[in-house]
Design goal:
Largest sheet: 8 strands, antiparallel
Distance between the termini: 15 Å
Structural class: mainly beta
Number of helices: 0
Strand content: over 45%
Number of strands: 8
Amino acid sequence: MSTGVYWQAFFGSETDVEGYDYDWEEHSLYIPLQYQFRLPLHSNFSIFLNGGIGFTCGISNTAKYDDYEDSIDVGYGSDNYMPSRTSWSLLYGGGIQYKMLQVECKISRGLTDNKDMYTAEDGLNQSCKANSWSVGISLMF
């Protein structure tokens, strides 16, 4: 079994419909719970597969427009067409370990549907699930 608490930060810049430039920033806590199956092929080398679930809880979601000095808290949820503060995901992946060095590739498939991010004009039956992939390098103790 493998778990932990991770801080995540996402940053970006956009131009909205009315032509205003703004920067956005979102911070969250991420808690994965996954099971790992390891197959030792040599005393110093093994391969592994893992799978499980992940939980994300948003901490802050802000935007800063070029015309304003302060950041604006845009929040979460359907009132402002933002994603939910909490979300669940399905995790699966695999990798290799050589001595203390582990390299892992992981896919995260969103289970929480943030369809509230769309307005009625955007479409009738759209969904918005957060999907991602990552590559990590770890030093195992």
